[in-house]
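User: Fold this; C-alpha coordinates only.

Assistant: Input:
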Amino acid sequence: MDNGVVLFGGSFNPVHHGHLLVARSVAEHLGAQRIVLIPAAQPPHKYGLGTPNLAPAEDRLEMLRRATAGDSDFEVSDIELRRAGPSYTILTVETYLRMLSTDVPCCWLIGADTLEDLHTWHRVRDLCDLVRIVTAARPGFETPNLAALAEILPRELLGQIRNDILPTPRIDISASQVRQRISAGRSIRYLVPEAVRTFIEEQRLYRGTS
Protein backbone atom coordinates (compact mmCIF):
# COMPACT_ATOMS: atom_id res chain seq x y z
CA MET A 1 0.00 0.00 0.00
CA ASP A 2 2.86 2.37 -0.78
CA ASN A 3 1.76 6.02 -0.96
CA GLY A 4 -1.68 5.03 0.30
CA VAL A 5 -3.89 6.62 2.92
CA VAL A 6 -4.82 5.35 6.37
CA LEU A 7 -8.32 6.54 7.26
CA PHE A 8 -8.83 6.51 11.02
CA GLY A 9 -12.30 7.38 12.25
CA GLY A 10 -13.55 7.51 15.80
CA SER A 11 -15.12 9.60 18.49
CA PHE A 12 -11.68 10.84 19.68
CA ASN A 13 -13.30 11.80 22.95
CA PRO A 14 -10.63 13.03 23.53
CA VAL A 15 -7.74 12.20 21.22
CA HIS A 16 -4.77 10.83 23.19
CA HIS A 17 -1.23 9.64 22.55
CA GLY A 18 -2.42 6.07 22.03
CA HIS A 19 -4.50 7.07 19.01
CA LEU A 20 -1.60 8.91 17.40
CA LEU A 21 1.10 6.32 18.06
CA VAL A 22 -1.02 3.42 16.83
CA ALA A 23 -2.01 5.30 13.67
CA ARG A 24 1.60 6.16 12.91
CA SER A 25 2.73 2.59 13.57
CA VAL A 26 0.14 1.20 11.14
CA ALA A 27 1.02 3.78 8.49
CA GLU A 28 4.72 2.90 8.76
CA HIS A 29 3.94 -0.82 8.55
CA LEU A 30 1.89 -0.32 5.38
CA GLY A 31 4.15 2.30 3.81
CA ALA A 32 1.23 4.72 3.71
CA GLN A 33 1.80 8.32 2.71
CA ARG A 34 -0.58 9.99 5.14
CA ILE A 35 -3.02 9.42 7.98
CA VAL A 36 -6.45 11.05 7.92
CA LEU A 37 -8.15 11.42 11.30
CA ILE A 38 -11.94 11.66 11.03
CA PRO A 39 -13.97 12.53 14.14
CA ALA A 40 -17.49 11.11 14.15
CA ALA A 41 -20.26 13.62 14.54
CA GLN A 42 -22.72 11.05 15.86
CA PRO A 43 -21.08 7.63 16.43
CA PRO A 44 -23.79 5.02 15.72
CA HIS A 45 -22.39 2.30 18.00
CA LYS A 46 -20.76 4.06 20.93
CA TYR A 47 -22.94 6.88 22.19
CA GLY A 48 -26.63 7.64 22.24
CA LEU A 49 -28.09 11.00 21.41
CA GLY A 50 -27.50 13.48 24.18
CA THR A 51 -24.83 11.39 25.89
CA PRO A 52 -23.29 13.81 28.40
CA ASN A 53 -19.71 12.51 28.15
CA LEU A 54 -19.44 13.07 24.38
CA ALA A 55 -17.77 16.45 23.85
CA PRO A 56 -19.19 18.68 21.09
CA ALA A 57 -18.03 17.59 17.65
CA GLU A 58 -16.35 20.92 16.94
CA ASP A 59 -14.32 20.60 20.15
CA ARG A 60 -13.20 17.09 19.25
CA LEU A 61 -12.24 18.32 15.79
CA GLU A 62 -10.24 21.19 17.28
CA MET A 63 -8.42 18.84 19.67
CA LEU A 64 -7.36 16.68 16.71
CA ARG A 65 -6.10 19.74 14.85
CA ARG A 66 -4.09 20.87 17.85
CA ALA A 67 -2.74 17.39 18.50
CA THR A 68 -1.34 17.07 14.97
CA ALA A 69 -0.40 20.69 14.23
CA GLY A 70 2.92 20.86 12.40
CA ASP A 71 2.99 17.13 11.55
CA SER A 72 2.66 16.69 7.81
CA ASP A 73 1.99 12.96 8.16
CA PHE A 74 -1.42 13.71 9.64
CA GLU A 75 -4.50 15.32 8.16
CA VAL A 76 -7.72 16.08 10.04
CA SER A 77 -10.99 15.86 8.12
CA ASP A 78 -14.38 17.29 9.09
CA ILE A 79 -16.11 15.15 6.46
CA GLU A 80 -18.47 13.52 8.99
CA LEU A 81 -19.25 16.76 10.78
CA ARG A 82 -20.60 18.21 7.54
CA ARG A 83 -23.10 15.39 7.10
CA ALA A 84 -26.34 15.02 9.05
CA GLY A 85 -27.35 11.75 10.69
CA PRO A 86 -25.33 8.85 12.11
CA SER A 87 -21.65 8.67 11.13
CA TYR A 88 -21.76 5.47 9.11
CA THR A 89 -18.28 4.51 7.92
CA ILE A 90 -19.45 3.41 4.47
CA LEU A 91 -20.87 6.88 3.75
CA THR A 92 -17.66 8.52 4.92
CA VAL A 93 -15.51 6.28 2.74
CA GLU A 94 -17.71 6.79 -0.33
CA THR A 95 -17.54 10.56 0.13
CA TYR A 96 -13.79 10.57 0.72
CA LEU A 97 -13.04 8.43 -2.34
CA ARG A 98 -15.10 10.78 -4.50
CA MET A 99 -12.94 13.66 -3.28
CA LEU A 100 -9.68 12.05 -4.42
CA SER A 101 -8.35 13.23 -7.77
CA THR A 102 -6.43 10.01 -8.38
CA ASP A 103 -6.86 6.33 -7.60
CA VAL A 104 -5.14 6.16 -4.21
CA PRO A 105 -5.20 2.94 -2.15
CA CYS A 106 -6.97 3.47 1.16
CA CYS A 107 -7.51 1.45 4.30
CA TRP A 108 -9.81 1.96 7.28
CA LEU A 109 -8.13 1.49 10.64
CA ILE A 110 -10.08 -0.03 13.53
CA GLY A 111 -9.21 -1.23 17.00
CA ALA A 112 -9.04 -4.92 17.84
CA ASP A 113 -12.08 -4.71 20.11
CA THR A 114 -14.10 -3.34 17.18
CA LEU A 115 -13.24 -6.16 14.78
CA GLU A 116 -15.56 -8.72 16.37
CA ASP A 117 -18.47 -6.29 15.97
CA LEU A 118 -17.67 -5.42 12.36
CA HIS A 119 -20.51 -7.60 11.08
CA THR A 120 -23.00 -5.17 12.70
CA TRP A 121 -21.73 -2.20 10.70
CA HIS A 122 -23.97 -0.57 8.10
CA ARG A 123 -23.28 -2.02 4.62
CA VAL A 124 -20.12 -3.72 5.80
CA ARG A 125 -19.82 -5.81 2.61
CA ASP A 126 -19.75 -2.66 0.49
CA LEU A 127 -17.21 -1.13 2.86
CA CYS A 128 -14.88 -4.11 2.55
CA ASP A 129 -15.14 -3.92 -1.24
CA LEU A 130 -14.01 -0.27 -1.21
CA VAL A 131 -11.16 -0.27 1.32
CA ARG A 132 -8.94 -2.63 3.25
CA ILE A 133 -9.97 -3.08 6.86
CA VAL A 134 -6.82 -2.90 8.96
CA THR A 135 -6.94 -3.80 12.64
CA ALA A 136 -4.56 -2.58 15.32
CA ALA A 137 -3.90 -5.72 17.37
CA ARG A 138 -3.53 -5.73 21.12
CA PRO A 139 -3.10 -8.40 23.81
CA GLY A 140 -6.19 -10.55 24.19
CA PHE A 141 -7.39 -10.03 20.63
CA GLU A 142 -4.76 -11.92 18.65
CA THR A 143 -7.34 -14.51 17.54
CA PRO A 144 -10.66 -12.68 17.24
CA ASN A 145 -13.92 -14.54 16.70
CA LEU A 146 -15.01 -13.69 13.17
CA ALA A 147 -17.72 -16.33 12.81
CA ALA A 148 -20.49 -13.76 12.35
CA LEU A 149 -18.44 -11.86 9.78
CA ALA A 150 -17.73 -15.09 7.90
CA GLU A 151 -21.46 -15.47 7.27
CA ILE A 152 -21.65 -12.26 5.23
CA LEU A 153 -18.21 -11.93 3.60
CA PRO A 154 -16.60 -14.14 0.97
CA ARG A 155 -13.57 -16.17 2.02
CA GLU A 156 -11.06 -13.93 0.22
CA LEU A 157 -12.23 -10.77 1.97
CA LEU A 158 -12.29 -12.52 5.32
CA GLY A 159 -8.76 -13.79 4.73
CA GLN A 160 -7.58 -10.28 3.88
CA ILE A 161 -9.08 -8.95 7.10
CA ARG A 162 -7.31 -11.66 9.10
CA ASN A 163 -4.01 -10.89 7.37
CA ASP A 164 -4.43 -7.19 8.13
CA ILE A 165 -4.47 -7.62 11.91
CA LEU A 166 -1.23 -5.75 12.54
CA PRO A 167 1.00 -5.60 15.61
CA THR A 168 1.10 -2.16 17.20
CA PRO A 169 2.76 -0.68 20.28
CA ARG A 170 1.02 -1.57 23.53
CA ILE A 171 -0.18 1.71 24.98
CA ASP A 172 -2.39 1.50 28.04
CA ILE A 173 -4.32 4.72 27.50
CA SER A 174 -8.03 4.99 26.80
CA ALA A 175 -10.28 7.97 26.24
CA SER A 176 -12.54 6.81 29.07
CA GLN A 177 -9.53 6.72 31.40
CA VAL A 178 -8.66 10.30 30.40
CA ARG A 179 -12.24 11.46 31.01
CA GLN A 180 -12.37 9.72 34.38
CA ARG A 181 -9.16 11.41 35.50
CA ILE A 182 -10.48 14.81 34.46
CA SER A 183 -13.76 14.18 36.28
CA ALA A 184 -11.82 13.20 39.41
CA GLY A 185 -9.63 16.30 39.21
CA ARG A 186 -6.49 14.30 38.39
CA SER A 187 -3.78 15.25 35.91
CA ILE A 188 -3.87 14.03 32.31
CA ARG A 189 -0.41 15.35 31.51
CA TYR A 190 1.54 12.91 29.28
CA LEU A 191 -1.66 11.01 28.40
CA VAL A 192 -2.70 13.54 25.76
CA PRO A 193 -0.70 16.06 23.72
CA GLU A 194 -0.05 19.21 25.72
CA ALA A 195 -2.07 21.34 23.29
CA VAL A 196 -5.05 19.03 23.86
CA ARG A 197 -4.66 19.16 27.63
CA THR A 198 -4.62 22.96 27.51
CA PHE A 199 -7.72 23.07 25.30
CA ILE A 200 -9.63 20.72 27.62
CA GLU A 201 -8.79 22.95 30.57
CA GLU A 202 -9.74 26.13 28.69
CA GLN A 203 -13.10 24.71 27.58
CA ARG A 204 -13.70 22.88 30.87
CA LEU A 205 -14.52 19.65 29.03
CA TYR A 206 -15.42 16.37 30.75
CA ARG A 207 -15.97 17.93 34.17
CA GLY A 208 -18.20 15.70 36.26
CA THR A 209 -18.55 13.02 33.54
CA SER A 210 -16.74 9.83 32.61
